[in-house]
Amino acid sequence: MRRFSPVLCAVVLAGQAWAQTGGELHFAISDDPKTLDPLQVTDEPSDAIRYLTTGTLVRIDRKTFELKPELAESWRVSEGGRRISFKLRSGVLFSDGSSLDAEDVAYTMRRILDPKTQVPAGDQLRPENGSPTVTVLNPREVSLLLPNPVGGLEALFDAVPILSSRSMLKERAGLGPFIFSEYKPGAFLLLKRNPNYWKKDDRGRPLPYLESVRIEIQQNREIEMVRFRRGELHLMSALDVDSFDQIGTAQGALDAGPTFDSEMLWFNQVPNAPIPAYKKKWFLSTAFRLALSEAVQREDIVKLVYHGRATPAAGPFSPSAKPWADTRLKPTAFDPEGASRRLAAAGFRRENGVLKDSAGNAVEFSLITNAGNRNRARMASLLQQDFQRLGIKLNIVTLDMPSLVERINRGFQYEACLLGLTGTHLDPNDQLNMWLSSSSDHVWNPHQTAPETQWEAEIDRLMREQSSTSDPVKRKPLIDRFQAIVHDQAPIIYIVHPDALVAVSSRLGNAAPSVLRPRVFWNAEQIYLSDGSGGKP
Amino acid sequence: MKWASRMAWAFLILVYLVALAAPWIAPAGYADQFRDHAGERPSARFPLGVDELGRDRLSRLLYGTRVSLFLAPVAATISVGLAFAIGLTAGLATPFLARTLDLVIDLLLSLPTLFLLLIARAMLPLNASPFASVLLTFLLMGALGWPASARVLSGASRALRGSTFLVQARALGCSSAGRLAIQILPNLWPLVVAQFFFLVPIFILAEANLGILGLGVSEPLPSWGSMLGELTNPAGISRAPWILAPAALLLMVALSFHIAGKQEKALS
Predict the structure, then answer these.
(1) How far is residue A525's CA from residue B2's CA, in Å, rounded to a whole number?
(2) Rg of the Cα atoms in chain B
(3) What pLDDT, in 10s, does the model give residues A412-427?
């Protein structure tokens, strides 16, 4: 009979519970941060700094997608989603030693709600009409009253960094696990441990475990990968499939699952776009769009372009967005015969292998995409062959990004576009701008003064209604109906949701990669380095 | 080094002949996708393996060679023609016109040609066929690639202008047109030919650079540049060294043009 060794047991338990303190985490960002003001962040490098140096009232757990208390120990949404009240933790200090109170939260809220400052962090909180009211109830409680209800209101505060209203250091006085220490533009940023950080681990030890974080600025992904493999960098937050295969799972490459990002194709439906009228007629035809969606071999794209590290897309929500994705909707199945039948019913016919419309025009159109994206170039080549099966000639045009943006946003001099949409939040409101017909991001036909089709009017109604409903149970049927319309009308042909591919050094403890950004260091205060570079627990 | 020149010419002729015969000797069409064979190693059916989209690499290399080898000389002819006309004018014109033309040449030399190409390419009609698009790309390269050659030719023309034999011809009553036809052009011609041979590989490489940036020849038409895109993944090279075939061919062709051009210059 085996006997338990108390000594061995203690060592094992301690190994699980302990984390080494000290050490310096190294990783790279692709560019210099555009701003160090946490409220003005719009780019990923700046967002990484913001995430590590500031604190928020609540935080979305990147693994469970549940909202967790942070600086606020509790919150309450009332008045039908118009009011949110936060109760702050006591004893929380900014990095300069000053204490956090309701005045700081009110100051931050007023700044993000001020229409003059156009703070990106407050985009979804700023109402179109009416003015919000921020009230300090007592030193630990603050309340925000909006003129209209906002769906998913509390989750929006995951991206709102709380600033000090009194500190001489202004934005530099942070509530995050690290504080800003040194910055050499084009070279690196150094963040040091925040000695006043409020969180403690299960054993009561102060967090973060790491002493510092060195963020290298490295544009060349190949060099970044070589440095990771040498052990000079401890993580990579975004890998392409080639790099993922190159690093290999044995060396730390990890697939965190389908992201909220989508690769998608759409047709130009702008009424005054400078393209021939007969082509506009094709693009406005639902049957044409659905037939082309049926002609796409999504499984081949997953296999050949993403080496299996992607999921065929059924619509705007990836399978990871579990609370909102309508699991009854399946990705459009590859069915060239069905597509041909659908096109024939819509008046198209095939002559000598060439598809022609009812007026005899050969179906040929151009597809623009951005140059330098290998996955998209491969995808376009596969689409070209898929559409050729129907007798459609597809001309692929790769353009530099500024030229492409100019064409899709201003001149509308394009016919179809293949591009990706980056999903940063789980909440459907993250996509609100794309679906409202009046929006500039309503890619296939932006800036509509009134919805030009019935189904767009219905989408407008559903998206507005869900965005002003706070109860997720009431929002879900609205979102499901919206997804069904998108599936049936195919204004956008969704192709795949790529997986979140990251690399994590075996030295990194407590890392729990997620599909939500920041993918690897979202729990930076819990992460530790497991070798001798750090001190003792 | 006559043997080197002969070897270079023989190699170039062979490559041109093989490229011309592509439709008959290529195992498959350049756009045919054998998706179930994607990424396969070389075999009897696919001698250079299959690319990531299932296309036969050898067939694409043969067709890609046609694009690069036939259009680069067209672009070089345009460039050399422009360089000759402008360089000669700058070398023989009045001091004011010569200075103006030199200034234009210096200005164009200082402009980043790649960005000019990107801007011009972004303005091309979207529904241009892949061949029309690549033809326009090479024509643009030809239209933009003359300044360096023009500077060489203007310098040579200026040197000729002050030469003793030209002064003697003038003293003997030879007209301007006669001096140009009998004295200047025959003396400049070897330099013009050498410039042509230097420009051909430069344009092949320029297209390759555009191809690597994803701004070269439109899919599915292959070119050396678009095929070289596979080399951006270093791990791929060690796993599948046969993807280096277009790079090796490009290197050998560029070297052959260089040797042939050098020989032409030496003969002058």
Answers:
(1) 71
(2) 22
(3) 999 999 999 888 778 8
Count the domains in chain B. Answer: 1
User: Are B218 and A378 in contact (CB < 8 Å)?
Assistant: no
Say whether A189 sits in a helix, a strand or coil.
Answer: strand
In a domain, A252, yes or no: no
Domain boundary among A141, A171, A201: A171
A364 inside 8 A of chain B by CB: yes
- Complex-level ipTM: 0.77
Q: What is the pTM of this model?
A: 0.83
pLDDT at position A466 over 60: yes
Instruction: Name B126's Cβ contacts closer than 8 Å, sequence gap at least 6.
Output: A366, A368, A395, A397, A413, A414, A415
CATH code of A228's domain: 3.40.190.10
Residues of chain B in contact with residue A366, where contact means CB-CB under 8 angstroms, are 126-127
Could you report how far apart the first and last alpha carbons of chain A are, in Å?
35
Interface test with B, best of A395, A404, A407 (most B CBs within 10 A): A395
Domain co-membership, A151 together with A207: no
B261 occurs within a structural domain: no
Nearest alpha-carbon partner for A265 in A367, A407, A396, A378: A367
* Number of domains comprising chain A: 3
Residue A334, pLDDT score: 96
- Contact (CB<8Å) A366/B129: no
Kindly report the CATH number assigned to the domain that includes residue B209: 1.10.3720.10
Could B234 and A395 be called an inter-chain contact, meaning their C-beta atoms sit closer than 8 Å? no
Are A461 and A441 in contact, with CB atoms under 8 Å apart? no
Please state, in angstroms and rounded to a whole number, the distance separating the CA atoms of residues A346 and A365.
18
Domain extent for A423: 262-498
Candidate from B35, B54, B127 with C-beta closest to A395: B127
- Which residues in chain B touch residue A228, judged by CB atoms under 8 angstroms apart? none
Closest C-alpha to A148, from A529, A359, A429: A429
Q: At what angle do helices A286-295 and A472-489 cross, to 10 degrees?
A: 90
Q: Is residue B258 part of a domain?
A: no
Q: Is residue A74 part of a domain?
A: yes
Contact A479, A463 (CB under 8 A): no
Q: Which chain B residues are Cβ-neighbours of A392 within 8 angstroms?
A: none
What would the mean pLDDT of A357-375 be, rounded to a whole number? 92
Same domain, A91 and A167: yes
Chain B residue with the nearest C-alpha to that of A299:
B35
Report the pLDDT averaged over residues A509-535: 84
- The residue among B263 and A272 whose pLDDT is bigger is A272
Give the Cα separation of B149 and A444 in Å (integer). Answer: 47
Domain range holding B79?
2-23+33-245
Largest separation between any pair of C-alpha atoms in chain B? 78
A368 contacts in chain B (CB < 8 Å): 126
| Interchain contact A396–B (C-beta under 8 A) | yes
Nearest by CB to A395, from B33, B54, B126: name it. Answer: B126
The answer to whether B159 faces chain A, any CB pair under 8 Å, is no
Residues A276 and A315 in one domain: yes
Smallest Cβ–Cβ distance between A396 and the set B219, B233, B234 belongs to B219
**Surface-to-core class of residue A275, CB atoms within 10 Å of its CB (0-12 exposed, 13-18 middle, 19+ buried):** buried
Does A9 fall in a domain?
no
> Which SS3 state, helix, strand or coil, does residue B109 take?
helix
Helices (H), A18-82: 44-53
Cβ contacts of A415 on chain B, cutoff 8 Å: 126-127
B235 touches chain A (CB under 8 A): yes
User: Of A145, A171, A197, which residue is a domain's last?
Assistant: A171
Residue A291 clears pLDDT 50, i.e. is over it: yes
Window 141-160 of A, Cβ < 8 Å to B: none
Residue A28 is predicted with a pLDDT of 95
Q: How far apart are CA B266 and CA A90, in angstroms?
A: 87
